[in-house]
């Protein structure tokens, strides 16, 4: 091998590496587009789930909770709350309704949002929908 690193050698390494990584990128993109239809969860997306997402956003739930690993870490992960509450939407609604108006003194606690029955149904349906997303076993334990 030559002891001198020439411009043409550098150009060939750059172009060869660029072509290689563009081909890797295209291959991974193709693989992803082949796998996505198998994991599509949009069939379960209903008007009630969409309303639940709006309630979630309007009350800034992600300001305290995480959902599928995204959000704040002040309160528990809610991606698997449906399983934690025994796969019961009524249990989720009951928990939200049971929050004290002034919170629990000396302790962090979820505020009382005074949601309507329709909003409670919607948020419970949204959390059920979120729990059915294939997350490859995230969170790693049932407690989030």
Structure overview:
By secondary structure, the chain is an all-alpha fold. It has 2 domains: 7-38; 42-131, Orthogonal Bundle (Cytochrome Bc1 Complex, Chain D, domain 2), CATH 1.10.760. It is built from 5 helices and 2 strands. Strand 1 (66-67) and strand 2 form a beta hairpin. Helix 2 crosses helix 5 and helix 4 crosses helix 5. The longest helix is centred in the first third of the chain and has 29 residues, at 7-35. The chain starts with 6 loop residues before the first helix and ends in a 13-residue tail after the last helix.
Indicate the percent of residues in helices. 40-55%
CATH topology of the largest domain: Cytochrome Bc1 Complex, Chain D, domain 2
Number of strands: 2
The helix-and-strand class reads: mainly alpha
The average pLDDT value, as a whole number, equals 89
Identify low-pLDDT runs.
none
Strand content: under 5%
CATH homologous superfamily grouping of the largest domain: Cytochrome c-like domain
Q: How many H/I helices? A: 5
- How many domains, as an integer? 2
The CATH C-level name of the largest domain is Mainly Alpha
Please describe the biggest sheet, giving its number of strands, its sense, and whether it closes into a barrel. Answer: 2 strands, antiparallel
Q: How far is the N terminus from the C terminus? A: 56 Å
Q: Which radius of gyration do the C-alpha atoms yield? A: 24 Å
Question: Strand order across the biggest sheet?
Answer: 1-2
- What gross morphology would you assign? elongated
Would you identify the CATH architecture of the largest domain? Orthogonal Bundle
Order of helices and strands: HHEEHHH
């Amino acid at each position: 091998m030559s002891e001198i690193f020439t411009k043409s050698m550098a150009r060939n390494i750059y172009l060869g590496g660029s072509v290689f990584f563009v081909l890797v990128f295209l291959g991974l993109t193709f693989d992803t587009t082949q796998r996505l239809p198998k994991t599509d969860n949009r069939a379960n997306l209903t008007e009630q789930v969409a309303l639940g997402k709006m309630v979630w956003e309007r009350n800034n739930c992600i300001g305290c909770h995480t959902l599928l690993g995204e959000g704040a870490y002040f309160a528990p992960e809610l991606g698997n709350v449906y399983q934690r509450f025994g796969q019961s939407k009524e249990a989720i609604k009951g928990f939200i309704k049971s929050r004290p108006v002034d919170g629990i003194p000396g302790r962090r606690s979820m505020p009382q949002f005074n949601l309507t029955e329709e909003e409670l149904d919607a948020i419970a349906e949204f959390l059920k929908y979120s729990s059915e997303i294939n997350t490859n076993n995230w969170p790693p334990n049932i407690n989030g």
